Amino acid sequence: MNSRLLAYLAKLSFSLLVLPPLLLSCSGPQEPKQTLKPKDNPPALINFVASEYSSQTRPLLENLVQEFMLKNPDIVINLQVANWDILDIIYTTMISKNQPPDLLNTNVYTHFANDGLLNDMDDIISPELKKKFYPDLLKLDNWNGKQYAIPYVSSTRKLYYNKALFHEAGIASPPQTWSQLKEDARKIKNTGKARGFGVDLTDNEIQAYLSYFFIGAGGGWIKDGKWTINSPQNVEGLSFLRDLYIEGLTDSDPTVTTRDEKQRVLGDGKLGMMISGNYFNLVVPREFPDLEYDKGPIPVKDGVKPINFGVQDTIVSFKTDHTNKEALSKFLDYLYSSPVYEQIIQQEGFLPVTELTGERLGSANEEMKADLAALRTASYYPIQQPEWQAVMDTARKMGDAVLHDHVSPKQALDQLQQFAEEEQAELKKHQRP
């Protein structure tokens, strides 16, 4: 329990035990009996579970929470920062015990909303805060006409590459098509010094790499509310990834080493290129200050138009037995205020989700300005589908199946398509109004 809350309870217990005798001893016989009332109201409690993006996340959030509580002594925030590897386990355990967090920083929300677990953020956030957000990002967090989430951070995805390895392999510029990607990966492999292309099919990022190569083939996850997972384009995209692996053009462990680990391998000169987000610009140079790197677009199938892929993480508020909407509103106003929110963006390397912060930081950073413009036309995960979490969970088994268990890309995607359709139909039966 938070130390401030403990202090309050101790103070209250002492008052109830000690003060009544003192009051009685000072009272004359003609005075009416006095009833003791606690002087203070208990502080509002906010349990906040946040995602750990880097080594900077925990100290950054701890500091801003402490600063907020110093300015707002009537609000106690219990902060828990969790790595993405265990985040799902933490909040699902809390929910199963009927003790969900008041605030959760995550990347999904509609399955919670479908189960009736979330507060409508329009009942919490101030009108001033709502006006700050980019409208297109805010729209992604609106489901069935209610604002069940608000944007927290965003990113665009690009191909990052080791310039020294490219130079040694005789590659003049980053690949923009699949045929160029395959050719350049082979050139890097042939140097004998590094692997060509990093592919992340782990539990953390398989949905990302599937998205890059689904959309890069002209396909996608969903169209007009119907799942299109086993479309010919998507099958072609997954087949291309599998072929890269079979030909030895990827890293050796696509289903084992995570994106963060692959970034270190690239920084160490053992991997030529990989797809990652804006945070690469901060996270990798911190550990490898001598690394010379650059970036290019996500490669697409020859003849397909270039793509922009964006990701946004959100904040949701669960209904609890102590929900204090005024306290939540005050904290969220603080979280997105200047310079607090700017500090989060700059230290974590993300793109801002508020327009004023985007204008301010983008005016001093041409790359961020261009990325923010690209984000306005980007494709995203289908986070407005309540079954998306379940689809992701099922997709996590697909990497090993396709690469190692001799399941064809078509078979794997047919199975995932069937699961998504069945899950969608089942959830619609129980959808809350």
Automatic annotation (TrEMBL):
Give the signal sequence positions: 1-24
Question: What's one Pfam family the UniProt record gives for this protein?
Answer: SBP_bac_1
Name the domain of life: Bacteria
InterPro entries with a match to the protein in the record: SBP
Which UniProt keywords are present, listed alphabetically? Signal, Transport
Protein family (similarity comment): Belongs to the bacterial solute-binding protein 1 family.
What is the protein named?
Answer: Extracellular solute-binding protein
